[in-house]
Batch of 2 targets.
Target 1
Amino acid sequence: MTVQTALSAQDFKSDVKPIWCPGCGDYAVLSAMTKALAELDVPREQIAFISGIGCSSRIPAYTNVYGFHGVHGRALAIAAGVKLARPDLTVIVAGGDGDGLSIGGNHFLHACRRNVDMTYVIMDNEVYGMTKGQASPTTSPDWCNSKLTPEGTGISPVEPVRLALAAGANFIARGFAGNPAEVSRLIVEGVRHPGFSFIQILSPCITYRPEEREWRNAVHASGEQPAQSMTEAMHRLASDDGFTTGVLFAGNRPAFMPARAAKATLADIERKFVS
Amino acid sequence: MSDVALFLAHSVALESEAADRYDELADAMEVHNNPKVAAMFRKQAHYSRLHLADVQETAKDVELPKLKPWEYQWQSAEGPESAPVERTHYLMTPYHCVHLALQNERRGHQYYADVARNSPDPEVRRLAAEFAAEEAEHVVMLEKLAATIEEPQPDWDLDLDPPVVTD
């Protein structure tokens, strides 16, 4: 039993009504996020919620904290800038699989290895929803329900958690939108873990991928303590079926933070040029 | 469930989460111009809040534990009366809405009936049996309502201007 924070989940919801399709998993992620924010006990004005472009990237508007609805794929770059300029803020980033792993794929790699203290939530529905249903980087190669890829993409999908581990993320977890309480726990743990935390949330798109309703029957809890070494995490993820939920890796790399104080005065620098 | 305070904390959460979810679904239906179903979800949220008030009245002299979202001991991923988000559709009809609510109430009844059968605490068993009886009444009411609503045609989700456009 623990003491609840003064602010409730409702306090973290804005008055803006989501325009997601009814049935979208992102509703449950929003609910999980506001509950997590209430648990974190951080004042609303101390939270920066950054996103890119896409259905899921609309989420900051639906919360009652400072938000930045950024440029497609660039949410992590914006968020890193916010965190480095204002290390006192709790920085959370959210977006979809297309925004984060295709358009923003390069930023994702470098955010993982840079290890700035922030939490990145990818709401993965394996499709570009906002542009009406095209294959995304996490779509399986044989999904052929888009007119752009009538015979499937034929390309192996990106495995977000494996990619994050290989690139150096310090905390890696996977959740399922159908279990919002567990997603809340993952977000709280991710925010509290130092360094770059990556959380993949399987969030069904019932409009373009109605078969994803079956994810409810496919997900299964890890049942193990988080791997703490990269070797152990690699070993476990090698046999991961993509539906294991829980904290998969909790590393101990120190978070990146550049020196705040100047190392030399302007006069010192000028003297170097003179001599 | 071996403690009255813990049981009542679960009962409060069950009703408040169900009410919040119905409101979210009503909002979604309003946004997607499905006013009939939106009104039905809104009414379900109202009823859930009435039930919540009843539970809070029962619990007014009990100091309830403050649980984190993941500390609730549900048998499913969410509170038993919370409508599963993925069971909704922007073209769903009053028939689907009533049947969704009916399933939620049945799960709520099942939850309380299980606690009433299995709790080692006699007071928890008494309260759970009382709540189970109330849920049973809600189930009967919704069954009667459901019987008055005709099942829609199989093509109820046919959209002549569908969102799936890739060309």
Target 2
Amino acid sequence: MAKQRKVYVTESGEPVYGVMAEFATPADVYHAAEKVRDAGYTRWDVYAPFPIHGIDEAMGQKRTKLPLVCAVIGLTGAGLGYLMQWWMGGVDYQLVVQGKPYGTWEPNVPITFELGILFTAFSTLICMLAFNGLPRHNHPLLKKERFLACSDDTLAICIESADDKFDPDQTRALLEKLGGKHIDLVEGD
Amino acid sequence: MSSLAANEHDSVLHHGHQSYEHLLRESNVRFTGGQGLFTTFLLLAVAGIGATIGGAFAADGGKLHVLASFQVAAAGCLAICLGGMFLTLVMHLMAAGWSVTLRRQMENMAMLTPVMLVVASIVPLYDLFVSHGLLYTWMNPAYKSNLVLQEKQAFLNPMFFCVRLAIYFVLWSILAGMLNSLSLRQDRTGDKWLTNKARFNSAWGMLVFALSTAFASFDLLMSIDFRMFSTMWGVYYFASAAFSGIATVVLIAALLRRAGKLDGLVNPEHFHDAGKLMFAFTVFWSYIAFSQYFLIWYSNVPEETAWFLVRQHKGWQWVFYLLCFGHFFAPFLILLFRGVKRSPNLLILVALWMLFIHFTDMFFIIRPMVTTRPDGPVGLGPLSGFWIDIAAVLGVSGLLGALLLWRIRSVPLIPLRDPRLPEAIEHKNYV
């Protein structure tokens, strides 16, 4: 049941994507993330030029469902691999190879294994990209000159206007209280 | 950049290394309880080994059966100790920080390797000098004219066999003593360079370990049926050692946690990584066990297939299937779950299952030999006289348990002054 969200626009009529604030050190952004999490925000992200250990926990992120999906697809692949060989060698085109019995399980193991790996590898890559919303050609933040420094020496938090708790003034005030610098509106949708 | 930033961030979240002193309090790193367990282990050892010997006079037993059952138990327990030695060596070689708080238990297990070698040498030496090749057929004068045996005479002869057993004993005593004394000396002196010394010695130690383990597995297990030869045999026994070794380490650590020890020193993060090793060696054993079986099955050379043939008839095929299920599928599928690896209580169950299936593996290797002798009982299934095997496994593992417990009680539970101790305490899986 989708709640009707308020749509914010700037004075010039551009939609508001969110509010962005910069932080100087990983420790600052880490503790700020904990506060944003505790304030109940759900649609926001931390931007950093390098991985920050433990940031997932500080952001209150749930564990990814990727392993489960990959396990299911991988086991399906292994099952299909076995089924294919059993049907081809044991049912459809029986052939005597070295006097071994038809449809025996031993020679099927390597290819069953290979197909399990193949399906798991592909599903890991494809589902990882899908879960992350990739590939993505543009992002409202990229229009911000200051944001580009997040690929070099700046850390930032951006809270999106699509968040239920978003309020232009209160969100800005929260980020200010957490020690964010250069707090700015981000345009775009 | 990344690691610098992470360190800065760590120093904010943690309070520096000084504050860990309270974790090293005597009540946390010394285990003084377990008297009841020790007595139980001793009783189990006496009763189990007694019942095993009694099996020689039972209707469904016999001398040959008892020798085989005892060797199942002894080879299984020796593998556990070798696993401890391997893990100690590999942790030093990799300069592993996370496992420092678990390493003392690996060292304890390694320390018992020479003792368990003596236990595992009882049957072959008895067979060599007293019963003249009842179990180890190559020692039997009746096979002296066998062509295959004559080809292998240069290796399989009494003199060289005894020399090799002595060499294993010396090498493993040196390795176990070296690993333990360096670690305990660091406890006393706090000399951080002993860590480097242990690492350097582990380099040649690993080579010595690998070769001696492989040859010991030829002597203690493969030579039981002198017709069998497999280049994978040494790796197979090593895989069993690593498999049962890590299970025992996890079992000891989890039980010590339940006894209220190692608080703040061993936590779910360590169990998570140890669980990954359990998973890894499950897969590794399966990989090489299947490879060995697969190549023999495929090439279909009678000299080799004979070994598997007797293990696929008269009920032995069920042990084979049990190994497929219990040594691979069950631990593989269970240990896939992150929650299991992070739960010490669940890992206790998994580790106990792994030890059970490890002894089943040794049972599968050795015990069919009882019924393949032309002059022995022919074609009996795995369940005939099964109680003797259970008694032997319980007895010898009771002995190992008592020795391990004695060892655990007599040394600190962790390397107290290892320079990587803070790293181990702060260890965290970020995924």
